[in-house]
Amino acid sequence: MLTVVPLMAAIATVSAPAPGLEDDGAAIVATVDGAPIVRRDVEAALRAARIDVLASPERALQARAAVLERLVEDKLLEFAIAKAGITVVPADIDTALLQAQNQVAAQGQQFADFLARTGRTEAEFRKTLQLEVAAKKLVEPRATTAALAAFVEATRREHDGTLLRASHVLLRPDVGRGDEAIASCIERADRIRREILAGDVSFAMATEKYSAAPSRRNGGDVGFLPRHSAAHEEFARQVFTLAKGEVSRPFATPFGVHLVTVTEVQPGRESAAALTEKLRPLFVLKLIRDAVSEQRKLREIEYAAGVPHFDPATPHGGPLPRRIVVKGANSP
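The structure corresponding to this sequence follows.
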């Protein structure tokens, strides 16, 4: 049984791992269709990402869950690569390693120092490169010119300098009620959204009537936003999924639960050719993530008792913030 735990309880779990996990690097923390992820994998990934888990208990909790999620995704990617019969020869890895060394040198660093800072040996780094090279080979058949062009067109507003003017309704949950309060706010926001879509109330009137934000005094207007700005990432991401006049579904940020609409669009000016080259790496990454998502539907993922990880019911990009869950020692 998976149990959603309060923040401090989850932090305590990180501070005091399940018996046998404290010093045993070979202890299994998760399996993906039986393929194990062990504790030393998590610790090595934390070092490679240069994450200081001693900075704060909250950071340790989020970092460990995020790193474990990435390791699970790596296992899923390995299944996709194996299923496709992809092979990587040493010369492929040598080429990728030389490119990485040149990139490090271009930044004025010694490659040995780079490895030391990330806590990896060259052999471990070559294993990382092997997965990256295999992943690119995996998605090559899908990376057609037409597919890239469609991706560029679908995501151009996020990267070409477009500015969107947004307005929002903000509902603040009762933090004392935890996740239940967020869910309640989302239900309430959904009712407000239905009122707006039915024409019973305008978006501006809804902000004045329901919103807890200071912007309720001017129709919820928060001004023009670039895709990447000082605004909260999830807020900006949601805004840039909308067409002008469209009303978002409810979503949560640390500030509360929002409904958002776009009132004006100021198009960007970057050319299609320049965008295509800029977005090519993101396109490949999307194809890799799609392959991982396909495998997630086919594979059984299990977590060991006492290991904090993200609740599958709160996926990345969903309306609820990602929650940390812990499987109890006596749970099946």
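Strands lie at 2-4, 28-32, 35-38, 163-171, 221-225, 251-253, 256-266, 301-303, 309-310, 324-327.
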